[in-house]
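Hi there, hope your week has been kind to you so far. Would you mind checking whether the tokens look sensible for this chain? I owe you a coffee for this, so here goes:
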Amino acid sequence: MRYYCNICKKDITKAEFLYSIDKFDRPLCREHQQLERKQQESQIEPPAVEPKVNSQNEQIAETTTQETQSKWKSLVKKAVVATGKGIAKGAKKIADSTRKTMQVRRWKGDILRRMYMNQLKRLCFEKRISTKKSELKESRSGGFYWKEYNCTKADLVGRLKNKASLDDIISFAKRNHINIRDILRDIDRKKAEWKVKEITETMKEGGISLILDVEKTIREFRPLRRYDKEIFYQDSLASWLKSKFPNTDIEVSRGSTRPDIVVEGIAIEVKGPTYDKDLQTISDKCMRYCQYFPQGLICVLFNVYVNHHRYKDWEKGMKETFPDVKIIKI
């Protein structure tokens, strides 16, 4: 859908369109919004001043009028600045969302292009997507009819990109032993960057929160190599955290609990390599740890060797049961 200014017919964004309709009852570009705003300001009369009595009262009245006008202008200016920031913030969110959507489509395409035609057709069958296409043809007699063709590989990739989710495509690729490890690493890396950016924006808007700061620091951590024992992940992560949070401790006991790492009252449970049985033990620890560490609990999972759908179901259940517990997958 096209959005344009009602005066100059210049294209405008959806955010500008909605804002203009709300404030001026018609779609305007930013330039005509400013003109309309100035016209509205010129029609606003400052509060009336009491009649003049004598020279002293005149001076007081004049001073009061100037102060009132100054405050009035200041309020209008603040409102305009706040409105501009709101539009910019909305436009930034739309741009970020669009970039993420396009990136997800690129990942889908990269995985789908590694499949053979018979695999693409099976995935289309699972998602109830047609593998045929029709074209309008003209007969020798001058009439028109539809002719059906088999879709090409590019056609099937395009349809699946539009109608299948990234999780479904990843799951199908794993079930059919298609090598997509490099793409999965890129997905994990990119999603971690998005999460760090999101946390940074939240900290800027609402002030720095300790648990957000700790979560951001953990998400920026990358182990030097893959380890086969949890203790190595625990030690390397604790060293990383101690460089920013000097009060970081290892295995602090409170009641029946002993989390792997504690940062200024925040409990951190480390798992790695992570298998099905490791996920099962986390929910029990969440129930106990939350009683003794009200400042927060963070679960850090390294090298997750769990079925994709199984992990998604577990993660969804954890968010519903323990919404305040942070889950970080590295």
